[in-house]
C-alpha cells in the first residue's frame, strides 16, 4: 500500500491537531524519561530531587488542563473514514475532570512518598517514574474512545502499578502483594481482552462510536454483545476493585508502599470508573436483552446494563462492608471500605443517562467522586503520618490517639464520619445526592441495600473512632507532626466539612462534566 | 476438495492446541509443561498462518517459542540442580472439581453464544503478505498506540531491572 500525497497530508493534519490535546500526556512521558535518566549521573542526586521532578511534571500537566479546559468534545488522533473522524482519544469535559482528578491524587500522594522512610533511604527515582507512568496510563484510560486504547490504557496503568506495589523487595508483604496483583491483573486483563475481541468481532470496529451505532441496528445479537460486555466489565471491575474482581484489594492495599495504596484507592478506581462509564454510555439506554426472544416470556421482561451494574453495586457494597467488620489492620479495613465505596459509586453509574438528560445523575456521581477523593486521601494521609511515627498498622495502635495527637485524631474522625456518610460532612451530602438519583432512577431496592450497608458500616467506622477517642493508650507519647503536614491534612479535611454545609456551588459545577 | 483440506488442517491445528493446552494444566513435571506449551503455542502460530496472518504467525513463533519458552527452559535449567525433580503439587480434589465446574459453565455459555452469532468473515480471498500493510498502519493510523507501547516497554524494562537488581548499594556505602 503506497501512501499518496493526499493521505499523507491528512495523517499529518490529524497528528498535528491531536498533539494539542495531548500535551499533558507528553509532559508526563517526558517526566518518566527524565526520572529514569536523572539517576545516571556520576554524582548522586539528593533523594528529594525525583519527587520534585515528578511534582513539577504532574503540576504542569494539571495546569495545562485547567488553562485549556475543553469546552466541547474534540476527537484526537485516529483516522478518517470518508469524512468521519474515528478518534483514538477524545478530549471532553468528562475526560478533563477525571484527568485532573488523577493528577490531583498523585500530587497529594507525592509528599507522602517523599516522607516515607523506606522510600527516602536513597535515591528512588524509579518509584516516582512508576507513579508518573501509572498516572499517564490513567489519563489515557480517562480519554480513550477506542477499544484498543481502553486496553492499552488499562495495561499501562496496571503494569506500572504492579511494579510500584512490589517496590519494597526486601519486604515479604510488598513482594507478595506485587505478585498477587500481577496474577489477578493478568486474569482480569485476559478476560477483558477476550471480551473486547468478541465485541470487535460483533461490531467489526474498534471505535466506540461504531459500537454505539451497531447496538441499535437490527439483527444485532444482543445476548452475544451482553456476554462480551460482561467479560469486558471484568477488566473494569478489577480497576475499580468492585465485585466480583475485588479479591486482590485487601492484600495489595496491605502490602504496597502506603502512599501507593492511597493512590490506588483513589486514582486507579476513578480511572476505572471513567473508562467503564464511557464504555457503558456507548450502549445507550435502549440496550436490553429481551427474554421474549427465549422461552416465550411476557413482553418487556429482560434486562440491560443498568441491572447488571446495579447487581455489581449491591454485591460490592455488601461484600466490602461485611468483610470490613472483622478487620484488625487499618489498611485492610480501609481496603474493604474502598470496595464498599466502589459499590456506592456503581450505584450512581447504574442510573446514568447520556447527553443533557443525564446532567443531574452525572453531577451526583462526580460530586461523590470529589468527596471520596477528600475523605479517602485524608484518611490515608493520617494513617501514613501515624504509621511513619509508630510503625504500627493495627486498630489497636490507634487507641488513645485523641489524647496523643488531637489534630490527627480529629482529622481522621472527620474522614471516617464522612466515609460513613453522617452530617455535617461532604460524605453525607454526596450519599444523599446519589441515593435521591437512584430512587428517581427507579432502583429503590438498591437504595434500600445502600441504606442497610451504611448501617452495617457504622459498626467498623465507629469501632475505630471509639479506639481513637475513648480507649486508653499504653504509651501516651507521640512524636510531633510538622506544620506542613498539618496544613496538608487540613487542606483535605477542611473542604470536607465545608462541602457538608455549603455544597450547592460544587454540586452545580459537577453537572457540567457529563458525557 | 480444496475446502476439505483446509478444514482438516484447521481441525488438526485446533485439536493440537486444545489437547496440549489441557496437558499444560495436567502435567506435573515443569519441563514437560514447557514442552506441552511449545506444542500449544506452535498450534496457535499454525492457526494464524492458516488464516492468512503470516506476520502474526511468524511473530508468535519468534517471540513465544523462540523467546519466552527458551527463557523458561533456561530458567529451570539455571535454578534447579536436577530439572527432573521440579514437580508441581497436585491440587486437592475439591479445588480441582470447582475449577473444572466453573470452566465448564463458562465454556458452555461462551460456546452457545459464539455459536449463535453469524460472524462476518473478513478472510482475504488470496494469501497476500501482510507485513507491509501492518507497517503502514503502525506508523500512520496507529502511531499513537505504537509510541505509547514504547514508553510502556521502557517503564516496564526499568522496573523489572530494579526488581531483579541485587542489593549492591550496601557494599558501595
Write the layout of secondary structure elements.
The complex is a heterodimer of chains A (515) and B (173).
Chain A (H helix, E strand, L loop, with lengths): L4 H17 L1 H15 L10 H20 L6 E3 L2 E3 L2 E3 L2 E3 L1 H23 L9 H19 L3 H19 L6 H32 L4 H8 L6 H19 L8 H7 L2 H24 L6 E3 L11 E3 H20 L5 H21 L8 H32 L10 H4 L1 H15 L5 H15 L3 H26 L13 H19 L2 H6 L6
Chain B lengths: L1 H25 L3 H21 L3 H26 L13 H24 L14 H9 L3 H22 L4 H4 L1
Could you please describe the fold and organization of this structure?
Chain A has 20 helices and 6 strands. With 515 residues, chain A is mostly helical. In chain A, the strands form 3 sheets. In chain A, strands 1-4 form a two-stranded antiparallel sheet. A two-stranded antiparallel ribbon of chain A has the order 2-3. Chain A has a two-stranded antiparallel sheet with strand order 5-6. Chain B has helices spanning 2-26, 30-50, 54-79, 93-116, 131-139, 143-164, 169-172. Chain B is globular, with a radius of gyration of 21 Å. Chain B has 2 domains: 1-87, Four Helix Bundle (Hemerythrin (Met), subunit A) (Up-down Bundle), CATH 1.20.120.1200; 128-173, no CATH class. The relative contact order of chain B is 0.07. In chain B, helix 1 runs antiparallel to helix 2 (30-50) and helix 2 (30-50) runs antiparallel to helix 3 (54-79). With 173 residues, chain B is an all-alpha fold. The longest helix of chain B has 26 residues, at 54-79.
